TrEMBL record:
It catalyses: Exonucleolytic cleavage in the 3'- to 5'-direction to yield nucleoside 5'-phosphates. Mg(2+) binds at N7, E44, D167, N169, D265, H266. Pfam families: Exo_endo_phos. It comes from Jeotgalicoccus coquinae. The keyword Hydrolase applies. Belongs to the DNA repair enzymes AP/ExoA family. The active site is at Y128, D167 (proton donor/acceptor), H266 (proton acceptor). Keywords: Cytoplasm, Exonuclease, Hydrolase, Magnesium, Manganese, Metal-binding, Nuclease. Signal peptide: none annotated. In addition to 3'- to 5'-exonuclease and 3'-phosphatase activities, ExoA was shown to make single-strand breaks at apurinic sites in DNA. Its cofactor is Mg(2+); Mn(2+). The lineage of its organism: Bacteria, Bacillati, Bacillota, Bacilli, Bacillales. This is Exodeoxyribonuclease.
């Protein structure tokens, strides 16, 4: 089976805008479709609380025929049009869908950050992890989130094997970003966030990319848009992951980034597994 995860950074823009970046985003969607994955996880949809519009739904149906869509948006008291997640899955799969709340601080549980699909023998869950923010204003809340999220995954893992995808907003090791020395106290590379990810893995989960590729360097999933040469220079971060329950890690066949051409920001990540 193939699963793909991508932080799209505005589903509406990707589907309806005619900007140069939107056209690149649509090229990425075409590439994703060409892999014919069973499940597609999408983060940072930025949709309204009402979810996809009729136009969005029609475009998605045309772009991904034979797929069902489920979504979760940011709702009050959280900011409007913020965060948000969506799954597309082949319609014959028919999983049970849940929208977890994990007891996170502030408005995090209202920001549409998690959806879980339950199948007969496993779960697929996706997350758009809260960013620690400028000046690390949200770092303490982020640490609580990391603990609650680890507890949630461990709870699932106690029932069935877990596949956990998404934008985790952390580069775990120095080899997971191009400039570790210059980003010591940057959001996504603080000691606290890195330790939170270490703690998550210690609960019985495996970073599939490292499982397959070992200590390879120079492979990233995100390049800053505001730095025009970030992708040209490969000055990136690996912050998007597929994690699996460690007991099924040997079933993983492939874990890799999908080429998104010249488009900066996030690139999709692919997981192929024997089930």
């Amino acid at each position: 089976m193939k699963f793909i995860s991508w932080n799209i950074d505005s589903l509406n823009a990707a589907l309806t805008s005619e900007s140069a970046r939107a056209l690149l985003s649509r090229d990425v969607l075409t590439t994703i479709r060409s892999h014919s994955p069973e499940v597609i996880a999408i983060q940072e949809t930025k949709l309204s609380a009402a979810g996809p519009t009729k136009k969005h739904t029609e475009i998605l149906k045309e772009a991904f025929p034979g797929y069902e869509a489920v979504w979760r948006s940011s709702v009050e008291p959280a900011r409007k049009g913020y965060a948000g997640t969506m799954f597309l899955y082949k319609e014959e799969l028919q999983p049970e869908v849940t929208y977890p709340s994990i007891g996170s601080p502030g408005t995090m549980d209202s920001e549409g950050r998690m959806i879980t699909l339950e199948f007969d023998d496993f779960y697929i869950t996706q997350v758009y992890t809260p960013n620690a923010g400028s000046e690390l204003k949200r770092l303490k809340e982020r640490q609580i989130w990391d603990q609650r999220y680890a507890d949630y995954l461990a709870e699932l893992d106690g029932k069935k094997a877990v596949f956990a995808a998404g934008d985790f907003n952390v580069a775990h090791k120095e080899i997971d970003l191009a400039n570790p020395k210059g980003n010591r106290r940057s959001a996504g590379f603080t000691d606290e966030e890195r330790q939170g990810f270490t703690n998550l893995l210690s609960r019985g989960f495996t970073d599939t990319f490292r499982h397959i590729h070992g200590e390879v360097t120079g492979v990233y999933s995100w390049w800053a848009q505001r730095a025009k040469t970030s992708k040209i220079n490969n000055s990136g971060w690996r912050i998007d992951y597929w994690l699996v329950s460690s007991r099924i890690a040997e079933n993983v066949v492939k874990s890799e980034m999908i080429d998104s051409g010249t488009r900066q920001d996030h690139t999709p990540v692919l997981l192929e597994v024997n089930l």
